[in-house]
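queue> pop job 88
queue> type: inverse folding (structure -> sequence)
queue> payload:
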């Protein structure tokens, strides 16, 4: 992948066998990416970026101004989110294997051994989030495989710093950001549909958005909601 810098903004440049130049600014960090046809030279790509500079900066400001969570300490009565719902954390020390339990509509119980560090508590919580997200995804992906008449060969959950999801089109593999376990289910569904639509259309072009509108008419609302929610400092 190539990189250029325009007015202090670093831009990823990918060369592809396409007809037109495509520009995108990705949440949550405002990463900029240009997909350029193989025949377009470096000067033309740079000129295109300069012409779009105002739009790029407006998009990036939205992400910069997005509210961010304060660092979590995994202590008693701290706020944590699951599927878009705010819970208060109860830390319960016990000489037993660690576990996480949603005890009621407002509280999550984190069972840990005495003197467990904050980093270890975070690891335990993240593993619980991972298992919860993995439990949601088979039914959700299966639902949209049937609706779209496509097949996902495999999927994985991982911590991702620059994307909510990605799709390896050739291998038909999805990657979903672990942080989606904390977001409303409609936001998770939006990301799953977005990535699966890439199995029908590789690029973010009119055809891609036609499919998004057809399969998930409220996708723009879900996208706006996801981008409005506080972002974890780990993303």
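queue> result:
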């Amino acid at each position: 992948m190539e990189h250029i810098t325009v007015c202090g903004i670093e831009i990823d440049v990918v060369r592809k066998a396409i007809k037109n130049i495509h520009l995108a600014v990705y949440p949550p960090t405002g990463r900029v990416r240009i997909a350029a046809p193989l025949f377009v030279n470096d000067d033309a790509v740079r000129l295109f970026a300069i012409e779009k500079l105002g739009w790029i900066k407006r998009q990036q400001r939205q992400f910069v101004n997005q509210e961010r969570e304060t660092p979590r300490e995994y202590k008693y009565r701290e706020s944590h989110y699951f599927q878009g719902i705010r819970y208060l954390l109860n830390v319960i020390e016990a000489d037993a294997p660690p576990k996480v339990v949603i005890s009621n509509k407002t509280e999550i119980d984190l069972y840990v051994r005495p003197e467990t560090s904050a980093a270890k508590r975070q690891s335990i919580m993240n593993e619980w989030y991972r298992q919860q997200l993995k439990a949601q995804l088979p039914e959700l992906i299966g639902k949209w495989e049937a609706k779209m008449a496509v097949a996902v060969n495999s999927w994985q959950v991982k911590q991702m710093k620059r994307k909510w999801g990605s799709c390896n089109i050739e291998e038909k593999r999805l990657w979903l950001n672990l942080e989606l376990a904390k977001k409303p289910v409609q936001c998770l569904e939006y990301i799953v549909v977005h990535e699966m639509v890439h199995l029908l259309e590789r690029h973010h072009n009119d055809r891609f958005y036609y499919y998004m509108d057809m399969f998930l008419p409220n996708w723009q609302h879900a996208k706006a909601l996801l981008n409005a929610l506080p972002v974890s400092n780990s993303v």
